[in-house]
Amino acid sequence: MNTTPPNPAAGYEALIRTYFDGCNEANVEKMAACFTQDAVHYFPPSMYGGAWIGGRLIAERWAQFVATKGSAWTIDRLVVAPDSHQAVIEWTHYKTLEGAILRGDEWYIFDEETGLIKEIRAYYAAAQHSDVAVSELEGFDYAGRGYHLSCPIPRQPTSSTPGA
After folding, report:
1. Nearest residue to 108 via CA among 92, 120, 116
2. Which pLDDT belongs to residue 135?
3. What's the 3-state SS for 93-151?
4. pLDDT tens digit string along 120-134?
5. For residues 119 and 50, what is the distance between their CA atoms, to the nearest angstrom?
6. pLDDT bracket for residue 157 (50, 70, 90)
7. Residue 161 above 50 pLDDT?
8. Residue 11: in which H helix or E strand, if any?
9. Of 58, 97, 116, 162, most Cβ neighbours within 10 A?
């Protein structure tokens, strides 16, 4: 019998990747299973109505973004600090129906007992302005550093998409 404890770094990374897969699939159950029941997702001021509280609510909101904004996400960088039960990622959020791209970072805090996500703090590269199609760091060489420059997940507008 193997008594070696599981690798927390690999487990945390796998959980974040599962969460992003669930986001891209608009799979509420898959996303919600990654969170503690009382998880909190924080956002910058004036974004998305403030913090989202509850793993299921977080999942439902991202699924709604896929439906209404054609959202898709990539993880561009990921670093895990298993001893402190934390991780940080750099991501890209494609709002394909709006022709917008957002870039930013998220800080993850994991529940030590369950290993589930209990907190996400989102930091955006720049505020999203309605007259700017691509929100990213000015002068940063995204292409040269190997970042995604176009949405890798095909999205099609639907007739029921509000504001499309």
Report:
1. 120
2. 73
3. EEECCCCEEEEEEEEEEECCCCCCEEEEEEEECCCCCCCCCEECCCCCCCCCCCCCCCC
4. 999 988 766 777 777
5. 14
6. low
7. no
8. helix 8-25
9. 58
Residue with tokens 């930013």: 104
**How many CA within 13 A on the CB side of residue 156?**
2
- CA–CA separation, 56 vs 35, rounded Å? 8
Position 110 pLDDT exceeds 90? yes
Q: Name the DSSP class of 49.
A: T
Total residues belonging to the chain: 164
Residues 6+ apart with CB under 8 A from 24: 66, 72, 73, 153
* Distance in angstroms (rounded) separating the CA atoms of residues 81 and 109: 10
55-69 and 8-25 helices cross at what angle (nearest 10)?
40
Q: Cα separation of 124 and 2, whole Å?
A: 42
Q: Which two tokens stand for residue 40?
A: 């909190």
Residue type, 26: A
Structure tokens at 147: 């970042």
